[in-house]
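Researcher: Please generate the 3D structure of the following complex. Treat every line as part of one assembly.
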Amino acid sequence: MSRLCLMLSVVLAAGTSLPAADWRQFRGNDATGVVDDQAVPTSWTETENRAWAAELPGRGLSGPIIVGKKVFLTASSGFSSDRLHILCLDADTGARLWHRQFTAMGRTMCHNKMCVATPTPCSDGKRVFAFFSSNDVICLDLEGNLQWLRALTLDYPNASNSLGMSSSPLVLGSTLVLQVENDSESFACGLDVDTGLNRWKHDRPVAANWTSPSIFSKAGSSDDDQLVLLQSSRGLTAIRPYSGTTVWNYGTGCSTIPSSVAVKETVYVPSNGLTALTPEEGASAPKVKWNVGRLGPGTPSPIVVGDYVYVVNNAGVLNGANIQTGDATIQLRLPGSGAFSSTPIAANGNIYLFREGGMAIVVQGGDKPKVESSFDLKETILCTPAIADGGLYVRSDKHLWKIAK
Amino acid sequence: MFLRWLSASVRCSLVTGLISVFGTEAVAAPISANDFAEAVKSIKQVGPEGQGNAEASAAFQRLISAGPEQLIPVLATVDEDTSPRAANWLESAAETIAAKSIEQKLPLPAKDLEKFVLDRKHHPASRHLAFDLLVQADPTAPDRLVPGMLNDPSVELRRLSVERVIAEGEATLKAEKKPEALEIFKKAMSGARDDDQVQAIVKRLEELGEKVDLPKHFGFVTTWHLIGPFDNREKKGFNVAYPPEKKVDLAEEIEGKEGVKVKWTPYTTPDRYGTVDLAKAQDKFKGAISYAVAEFVSDKGQTVDVRLGTPNAWKVWVNGELIFAREEYHRGHKLDQYKMRARLKPGRNEILIKVCQNEQKEDWAQEWQFQLRICDSTGTAVLPATPATASAR
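Model: Done. Output below.
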C-alpha cells in the first residue's frame, strides 16, 4: 500500500471508526455485558441522574444499541403486532433522529410476555441490522436508508415459534450471524453484511431455542480469529463466522433460554447448572474446567465481573462463583419481588439488574456483593440494557431512558 | 496540511467520501420516467434468499434521491401483485422520501396524500402509510377521513374507524340512549375484524339484548366429519399418509391406531369461536392423529384466506392439495395463528385437516383442537353458498 493510500485509509477510517464507548449488540461489543472504563451512575431518582426519557411507538424486549452519538432501538405495534419499528435517537438529548417502519413478512404470534421486537439489533458501525421474531432482517445505514432486507420465514416457511423468537443477531467482521431455532425448521446462517445473501446456512437441532450467539476470542486475536458460539439443547458449537465451519463442539445439552458468555478464553455455559469450558488449540472438544449444578440461571444469562461469575436464578437470588475454582459461595437475595428477564450488565465492578416489574437494582460485585441502591421505574422492563459513553440505557414498552450524570 | 499533497481529484473523492460517511444531505437528483420505471422494476424483482438485494439497494438510492415529488408516484407502485419484500422496499422508499422532506422543512403534499388515501384502488398498505404521512402534514385529516373508513380494505384504517364508532356507542350508552346505542354498536360490528374490538362490541350488543352470530361474523367452519385416532406415538405419524390423505370416503371404515376400526362421524362444534375440541369430541388420546373434513360450497371460483389456530402439529389440504404443514406441539394457539391462501372452485370444495397430538404429560400439553375459518385478506368472512345456489350442483 502506498503512503498516500495508507494516509487516505487512516483519514477515512477516522470518519468511520467507532469510539470504544459504543455498545453495538446484545450484551455489548464483545457480548459479555461488561465495560470497565465508564463511570455510570450507581443511583438515580425521578430527577437526579436521569438524562432523558423518550416515548416509544410500540412494545419491545429488545435492548438499545449505541453507535457514536446515536441510539438504535426496535419496537413492534398493531393489533397483529405486524408493524415493525426501527428508531434512531440522539444519545445526548433523546430526540428522535429518524424512524422507519416495515410490515412483518413472517408470523407474528408470540407469548403474551414476548413480542415481535424481542431480539436486540446489532451494528458493524456502518449499518444497523434489525432482527424480529417474525424472522425479518432489515439492514439500514446509520441515516435510516434501507440497504437490504430478508424475510427468512418466506424463504424457509416453517421457521417460526408460536411462543416467539428471541435470539439476537451478532455481527463479526463482514458476517451477520443468526440463530433461527424452533420445533419445526431450525437453522443458523451467516449473511453477507453488504447484500444480505447467505454465506452459509446450517441445519440446527429441531427444538425451540431462545438463546443468542456469543463470541469467543483469544487474547490478542484479530476479528477474523473470533469464533461464534451457538448454543442449543444438544450442546455448544464454536464456528468461524465467515465460513460457518465448526472448530469445536461441546456435546452436552445446554439451556435453551440463558446464553453462554465467554471471558478470558473460558466459556461459562448454562449446562447442568453452570459449566466452565476451556477450549484448547486444535482440540475438537473443550475441557470442562468446573461444573456447579446449583448455579443454573433463570432467564437472564450469566455475567462475569472481575474474578466472579454471577447468575440470577428463578427465585430472584444472585448466585456466584469464583471463575478459577468454581467455588460457589456467593448468594445474595435481591430486593423487591418478581421475576427477572433482563440479563445483568456491569460497569466499573457494579452490576445493574432489572426486575420485570421495573425495579432497578445496583449491586457492588465481589465475593461479598452488596446492594448499592435500587429504584423503581414502575414500568415493565424485559430488555437487556446498554452502557455507552457514561450512560445506561434501558427501555420499557413505553419509554427509553438514559441514566447519566 | 496533508490535503495539499493530494491531487484535486483525490481531494474531491475524499470530500465525497467524508460527506457520505457523515451523512450530509445530498441535493435531489431528478429522475426520468424511464429511470423511475427501471428502479421500480429492479425492486420488484427482489426474490428469495436475498436475491436482487444489491440491485434493489441501488434502485432504492435512486428513488430516494429523486426528491419529494416522487413520494406519491412511489406509493402508487405497490399493487396486489407486489411481493411482501418489494412492498417493504417501496414503502420504505416513500417513507424515506417523506422523512427527508420533513428534515429539509419542505411541506408534504397533503392534498395529494389525501387523494391517494381516498382512492381505494391503491394498495391498502400504501394507503395506510399515506394516511400516516397525511396526519403529519394535516392533523385535522383523521376527523375528516376516518368516519368513512368503516369498511376500508386496509385493516389498520378500518380499525381506526371502528374505534371511533365504539367510542360513540359508549358515549351514547352513558347518556342512557339504549336504542340509539344499539344501532351504533351494530354499525361498529359491521366494520370490526380484529377480535379485541369484536369482543368489546359483542359485550355491549348482548347487554342490549342483541344476538350475535360469531361463527358467521368470522366465517368459522363449524360442521365437520371426524375420524381417528391413528398412530402418532413418538410423533412418527406426522409424515405417515393415512387413508384419509389419499381419499375421503365418509362411508368407509378404516383401521386406526392399534388396529382399532375407525369411521367418519359427523360433528358440529357448539363453540362460538369455532373450536373443534378433539379431546372432547373423540377422547383424550395421546400419541394420536385425527382427521376432520368439511364441505365448503363456493358460489364462484375465488382465492380466499384459510386461517387456522391450533396448538398441535397439522396439515391442511384444499381439494386434495396440501396448502401447508407444520410440526409444532403446544407452543400456544390463537385466532388466525396461520394464514394461508387457497383457491376455491365453484361448487363443492373439500377442506381436510390432520391434527396431531403428541405424548407430553404436562397439564399445558393436553389440548388437541383446532379452529378454522374462511375469509378474505381483510378478515371478512367468506360464507358458503347454499348448495341450491352453488353453480356446480
